[in-house]
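Appendix C: a fully annotated inverse folding record. The material below is reproduced so that readers can follow the format used throughout the book. The structure is listed first as tokens, followed by the designed sequence.
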């Protein structure tokens, strides 16, 4: 038996007919960044000295911080970019020190900013919030180029819709 096996030669299929170095071309491709054209990194804008403009629509929303942005009537305003030029992410700084970050690789919209804020305040009751309504945002390049200051107010303007969810008023009088 040992005489017969000596005639066989060992064949390694991995080495047979191939060079030892891996091929130069790789078949997999790297996914391109999903950021849209014209959307900037806030740090690049700071280096270039480009100024930000904040969408004026944020001041008219009268949005309560602890309610979902989906409840707002002005759905078109939510789709607008928060800043011009649009950025991938921006920090939103509250006067008491809280800071949240709104991110969107296609450009941070007003909805992205409200979602980030809502995430922090959704578990708070109305009476826990001293200033429960969004008044708008302010960009102070002297303080921080990459941050917007969030302004809040005590009450929103009366809504024109007039949907009442509180039935206690109609029974009491």
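Designed amino acids, in order:
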């Amino acid at each position: 038996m040992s005489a017969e096996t000596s005639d066989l030669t060992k064949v390694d299929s991995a080495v047979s007919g191939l060079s030892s170095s891996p091929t130069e071309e790789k078949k997999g491709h790297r996914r391109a960044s999903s950021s849209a054209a014209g959307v900037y990194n806030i740090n690049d804008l700071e280096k270039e000295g480009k100024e930000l403009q904040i969408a004026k629509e944020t001041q008219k929303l009268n949005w309560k911080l602890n309610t979902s942005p989906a409840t707002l009537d002005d759905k078109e305003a939510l789709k607008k970019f928060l800043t011009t030029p649009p950025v991938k992410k921006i920090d939103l700084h509250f006067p008491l020190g809280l800071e949240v970050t709104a991110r969107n690789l296609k450009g941070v919209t007003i909805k992205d900013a409200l979602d980030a804020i809502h995430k922090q305040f959704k578990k708070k009751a109305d009476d826990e919030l001293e200033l429960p309504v969004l008044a708008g945002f302010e960009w102070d390049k002297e303080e921080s180029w990459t941050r917007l200051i969030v302004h809040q107010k005590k009450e929103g303007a009366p809504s024109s819709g007039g949907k009442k969810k509180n039935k206690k008023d109609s029974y009491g009088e």
